[in-house]
Amino acid sequence: MVSPLQVLVLGRGFVGKYLTDLLEERGINYASTTTDGRDGTIKWRFSGEDDAPDAQASTLPFAESVVVTFPLLGSAAARKLIESYAGGGRHAVAGSSNATPRWIYLGSTRPFKESPSSRYTTPDVLAGGARLEAEQCVINSFGGCVLNLAGLWGGERVPSRWGRFYTTKEKLRGRLADRSLHLLHGADAARAICAVAMSNNPTESLVGRWLVSDTRVYEILQVITPDDRICGFLSALLEEEADVRALLNAKTVEEIVMGESAVTKRIDSSHFWNDFKTEPKYFYDRNRPDPY
């Protein structure tokens, strides 16, 4: 008799690659999917469209924990994925320690606006949109666990290069009121997911959402000002707008106080690391290479 998988990773993207490497390192029985079946993965693509076959996820192997790494847009998409995966009598698979899979869905910390926000903070519905609706469905209808991950980095994802997202000085201007930046290395995201998937705690105790960051708060200007274009935008804003000079308490870029002391922590992830009795290992320093 073939034993069920311990973990199924739906979507081996950025986080999924770190996760599968960790599962292999720990000798955990797993499978993962990609849209093209590369590198020994299962070829599979989820469609949330109403006219797509309802049974499309029923062909996937049973696993005790299922990790969804891609965004689901709305409760209908979340329900379709989970209910179609449950097709084919998966709950009766012999050898499984769980009657139903433990669902782990990855979200972001974007909808959390309070300072600080924790797993008990009510997320902003408008900021969360359809993705937040899917998260609520996974939690409330299927007893799932949502991990809201802070800004992911590692490998080719280098925070000091994120200045490219601020294509105009107006976009940078919109970031100056809250310059806090919360990060999570892909390897620590994988360790967090693995901690939930392999937890010996009853599934009921894991239901709900957890905010996950590396516990530190970074300052966005300190991270991206090596970008000369960003410095140019800042210089122009300081020269042109009295409100910006007052906000930054500076007249020139050189006078801006940057760093952790200049910002307020927005994400409190202590509940996760304390409850799962682990801690992050990798922290960002723009002057040092990726420590992973």
TrEMBL record:
Gene3D superfamilies: NAD(P)-binding Rossmann-like Domain. This is Uncharacterized protein. It comes from Coemansia guatemalensis.
